[in-house]
Input
Amino acid sequence: MAALPGLADSLTPLEDTSDGPKSQEVVIPANHEWRVESPPDTKLVIKVKSGIAEIFGIELALEQNYTFQGMNFALFAVEMVELQYSCLDFPKTTISDDTNMKYIYNLHFSFEKMRISSFDGPKVLIVGDSCSGKTSLAKILCSYALKIKSYQPVLVNLNPQEGVYSAPGCISATPISDIIDVTTPTWGQSMTSGATKLHCKQPIVKSFGLENISDNKHLYKTLVQDLGQVLLERLQNDPVVRRSGFIIDTPPVSQLLDDLELFKLIVKTFKVNAIVVCATTDDLAIKIDEILKTQTITIVRLPQSSGVVAVDDVHKRFLQRNAIKEYFYGDHNVTLSPYVAGVDFDMVTVWQPPSILENHESDPTDLLPVEVNSSNLQHALIAITYAPRRASKDEVLHSPILGFGLIMEVNDVRKKLRILLPVPGNLPDKAMILTAYRYLE
Amino acid sequence: GATSKNIQSRNWYLHDSQWVTFKDEEIVSTTRSEDAAST
Ligand SMILES: Nc1ncnc2c1ncn2[C@@H]1O[C@H](COP(=O)(O)OP(=O)(O)OP(=O)(O)O)[C@@H](O)[C@H]1O
Ligand SMILES: [Mg+2]
Output
């Protein structure tokens, strides 16, 4: 099967480049972090020669290559670390002892106490401004919980702009029962058809489709409630997951707090019992305390790390494209073979959530039919639901998601389209939901 | 490593009703089995 032009490019291993990168060495003193800030196209390979090094709370193996592409991260030296790295470009690297890791460790320890003293683990909500380290903290807290083998913390991603174990445009919950892949921004892979080198994860996904929560708050709230309900049911069936608890990552707090109902709804739906505020001052924590003052929820502020990078939109786009690519084609650990299916126009039914910003009149929960043609669908990422193709739009709205498809080619004359599917076989005879995400070179 | 030549692709996500009763122990990974073999 022919790959989309350029789609598989970045899967080429670094070693293949002709004028080979020079290897450099660095020593990181204990309790310091080595920070890397790298532009999207930069590939970096690191190898720990000695010492205990952690990235996002995951300890790295000695003498093993880890390849990163366009990722910012900090490598924390628990003990002095000797590191080798090679890179064709010049990523910005710095060493700093100004880290918030000890606060994060204390946080983890207090959650650990909850796990030990109750059948119900912590239900943690992380909030903070854009680029305040929320997602990094969520990763670290999950990694730390994983260190105690019998835990399976659930990572809940409520930020539709990020793809965590899935494509962007959705919200999701994923129990994490084995190592997080620190080298990929998607945290690793969702389930595949065979055994893979790195442990796969089984997420549950609700497709939002739009980019910003504000595009359709009502729909977002509906999906948050649907997701929360499924997750709490899972907890009832699974004592290990229940005891491990969950960590909720969120979009920038400005998007949550301009509608207090939404914020309160998240707290209530997930029965949140601890809130961690990523911020440089106490203001936000005080504000949240006032909003929730009648409730007994622990609110703590985590001092923001000075290492956090203000990622720009270009980089965010790169991460979103990367997440889509990984969903279909895998990453440098696992190469996946997606499948292209050809279908007639009259075999597909596509719905679209209305964007309230664009269309104030429309009913927010009323899915709109999408006419099948190239201008609407070319290169679009679509969510394939479990709802039969002719199901009512209300059924489609609340339907579980089978997965995603990518429309590769639309022929308006022959009334046929080609769609990239993650799983071999025919296009499932199901209703589909258009997302705002496009993938093309 | 000894990666199999089988063509591998992603699975569809589970239905909500399957997911609520899914147990992560059912997931196979080669690191897992290696771990198990070495202990
Ligand atoms: N200590 C650190 N050293 C270097 N880079 C870091 C550090 N902490 C976080 N980063 C990087 O900074 C960027 C922003 O962090 P992160 O994604 O955790 O913030 P966020 O609050 O989730 O952002 P958003 O609001 O976009 O979701 C990421 O690229 C992350 O990898
Ligand atoms: Mg984030």
User: Anything to note?
Assistant: The interface with chain B takes residues 152, 175, 177-179, 189-205, 230, 233-234, 237-238, 327-328, 330, 334-339, 386, 400-403, 422-424, 428 of chain A (CB under 8 Å).
